[in-house]
Design goal:
Distance between the termini of chain A: 41 Å
Mean pLDDT of chain A: 93
CATH superfamily of the largest domain in chain A: Spore Coat Polysaccharide Biosynthesis Protein SpsA, Chain A
Domain MobA-like NTP transferase (chains A, B): 3-111
Radius of gyration of chain A: 27 Å
Low-confidence stretches of chain A: none
Number of helices of chain A: 16
CATH architecture of the largest domain in chain A: Alpha-Beta Complex
Strand content of chain A: 15-25%
Largest sheet of chain A: 9 strands, mixed
Helix content of chain A: 40-55%
Oligomer: homodimer
Organism (chains A, B): Geoglobus ahangari
Number of strands of chain A: 13
Largest interface: A-B, 40 and 40 residues
EC number (chains A, B): 2.7.7.74, 2.7.8.34
CATH topology of the largest domain in chain A: Spore Coat Polysaccharide Biosynthesis Protein SpsA, Chain A
Structural class of chain A: alpha/beta
Catalytic activity (chains A, B): 1D-myo-inositol 3-phosphate + CTP + H(+) = CDP-1L-myo-inositol + diphosphate; CDP-1L-myo-inositol + 1D-myo-inositol 3-phosphate = bis(1L-myo-inositol) 3,1'-phosphate 1-phosphate + CMP + H(+)
Order of helices and strands of chain A: EEEHEHEHEEHEEEEHHEEHHHHHHHHHH
InterPro entries (chains A, B): CDP-OH_P_trans, CDP-OH_PTrfase_TM_dom, CDP_ALCOHOL_P_TRANSF_CS, IPC_transferase/DIPP_synth, MobA-like_NTP_Trfase, Nucleotide-diphossugar_trans
């Protein structure tokens, strides 16, 4: 399947920059849509460009390995319908038509590809209805379309699945008039309408739109399923704010290293001030969410990055408990440190070994009642560190050693009893 | 695709027991073949039984959830060709024909299903040629077949892929004579021949065959790819001998628990005699291979079993080093124990986390030069334990702490540099 991408508009409200190449949450608008389409079976892109942006677009698409054809619209003033018409000889059968300045979340595109006609949204949560193109639908087909309809059924998402027939009508209109907008062709062809409601999609018209889209994309990139209690109720309230600030400036690997270094710092601060070290350790736990959020939001996830992040987390956890033990435990108390470190590690080990064996997350099937996930452990450790002027750190090791090992035993029993 | 299974023979040389239900290496002969065929797309089995074994076979196949039809041969004395002829109305198109007393390894069956005609073996390593059915092939077709051919091309494996045409010739022969053997039909039909050489397959005729097949199956179940140096050159020389003794008596989970208990015992013996504890720990390492061998040989592998085995290994490793530390380390030396335990765990953790993320074994792509796999660590620990009257155990912790952590750092660098 091919996709036609209209990029011939002049970005007047964006200060004349090339709109499809504007970075939103760390990735160019056009990259976002094309990458998702490509991952879902679209194998060639017909890019309708103008004389100004054609070179920059060509260079960008080549660098990112997309299979594409550039068609230059020499008369962009003839309207979006005319631009679209230029793709006529490059498509066949069923094809996708999208706007080069629209952003869609992956679930939207995946579902839209199963439908046909104009994809509309009856519950558009993320779009300014005032500015949007509205559609009046009768008997499942477009009856009227435009920005200023008073009576309308739903919002035009700018995502179409069309067939070559549409060009007969396009040609007729283009022969009749000088300026033809895409909406006129759609209305004249009485394109059928399918709805996909409530997904995130937006057209990017102003710098404010860029900011708003970034915020939404970062929030949607917060991974939910596997978070512990502290992560859900504290860490993930703060980390997206940091991710939003950093996403245009750094790559995920930088965030991984930053969180690692803050973790190492917290371990060293143990010898200077235990309460302060506890706070820094908790900060590193919050920062630990940032790399994943940036990676998902900027479509830069990598398996190596995920593996490295987990591995470095284990170093931080080990070093912190070891420094705390060196600083605070005497004589045979250190056996507790062994048990605490062992238990902490076994929580991570058993869940990863499970994922390797069963090819799914441990937490998809199991919800242990004993707490002990990393975010929960770190928060508990911070509490004890803050209380250290009054409560001996020895008791922290007692609690961690007992709780983590109990949790591992619970996990073992669950897996054996459920037989997976 | 359907499969016809001839089970109407009377097991005269096996003391009249029901041959397809004889356990070889912990699994019934017929289960082995049917399970592999089922896993490779055969969806129904036509079982030709006799009056004596029909009830036992029905019960067994029902209990194991196979989809099957039983056809009872009331006149088994009319020969194997007559038995086969009874399946006529139950198959269509292309179908498999196998003998109920044959064992085939999975790779043989997987490849045979892609071929057709009589599958022969020109390089039969596992079969007594004296006793085997020989085939003379000309122009790719059976010219002569029988046990007593002097001039022959290859050995009949007892595995056929046939089409319904064969029954025309079978019917003709059965109308002509009272006793018709399968080989007569095959010869008369000039069935085409395909060869698969060197795979393990056997027909089970005598109690000695059962023993021999068991030995071969257990040896073939030794997992090679991920073993460390000590495992390859010591542990895996001994563990198959133990597996062979135990496979008819115990399930894999019992072997897991046995190896775990021996590991726990070795930890406790630390307080009594360190050299002895080292030896017992090494024995537990050898036993650690038995559960997997039994599971694969007896076709009883389970993900839960694999997960539990790894988890219990971590307990044994932790407990042994902890007991050794408690017994031998003083004052601040115990920091070494923390590093040794951490490093040992991180070797396991990083490889499992890798497998969870990349969906393949760490060792498929990486061959770290620093040693440190579990079998290697345990062997080193045993050596130090044996030398403990002369060398302080303190140095064992120094070596383990350094080597394991070096190995983890090497793994991290490898993954980062290779980007996976």
């Amino acid at each position: 399947m091919k996709a036609v991408v209209l990029c011939s508009g002049l970005a007047t409200r964006m200060g004349g920059t090339i709109k499809p190449l504007i970075k939103v949450a760390g990735r160019e608008i056009i990259y976002r849509t094309l990458k998702i389409l490509q991952d879902n079976g679209v194998d060639e892109f017909i890019i309708i460009a103008n004389k100004i942006n054609k070179n920059a677009l060509t260079k960008f698409l080549e660098e990112n390995g997309f299979k594409f054809k550039i068609v230059v619209n020499e008369q962009p003033e003839r309207g979006s319908g005319y631009s679209f018409y230029l793709s006529k000889d490059f498509v066949n059968g069923r094809f996708v038509l999208i706007m080069g300045d629209h952003i869609f979340e992956e679930d939207f595109i995946r579902n839209a590809l199963k439908l046909d006609g104009l994809i509309c949204d009856c519950d558009s949560k993320f779009v300014n209805v005032e500015e949007a193109t509205k559609v009046l639908v009768k008997n499942g087909r477009v009856t009227d379309i435009g920005k200023h309809l008073n009576n309308f059924t739903c919002i035009d998402t700018g995502f179409f699945i069309l067939t070559k027939d549409i060009f007969t009508i396009a040609e007729k209109l283009i022969k009749e008039k000088k300026v033809v907008e895409l909406s006129e062709i759609i209305k004249e062809a009485k394109v059928n309408v399918n709805t996909l409601n409530g997904y995130f999609w937006m057209d990017i018209d102003t710098p404010e739109d860029v900011k708003r889209a970034k915020k939404i994309i970062v929030r949607k990139s917060v991974k939910k399923g596997e978070d512990g209690f502290i992560s859900r109720h504290l860490n993930r309230k703060i980390s997206p704010l940091i991710s939003e600030k950093l996403i245009d400036r750094i790559d995920p690997i930088h965030a991984t290293i930053m969180s690692f270094l803050v973790g190492i710092l917290s371990s060293l601060v143990v010898f200077y001030s235990i309460p302060l070290s506890g706070i820094i350790y908790q900060i590193s736990s919050i920062l630990d969410g940032v790399d994943g959020e940036i990676a998902r939001a900027a479509m830069k996830t990598s398996k190596t990055g995920g593996w490295l992040d987990s591995t470095l987390d284990r170093y931080v956890d080990f070093l912190f408990l070891t420094c705390l033990a060196v600083n605070s435990l005497v004589n045979y108390e250190w056996i507790l440190a062994l048990f605490a470190i062992f238990g902490s590690f076994m929580i991570s080990y058993t869940t990863e070994r499970y994922r390797a064996e069963f090819k799914e997350s441990f937490y998809k099937r199991h919800r242990p009642v004993v707490f002990g996930k990393r975010d929960e452990r770190i928060f508990l450790i911070m509490l004890f560190c803050l209380l250290s002027p009054w409560v001996d750190i020895f008791y922290l090791f007692v609690v961690i050693a007992i709780v983590t090992n109990l949790r591992v035993v619970e996990s073992i029993l669950r897996v054996i009893l459920l037989k997976r």
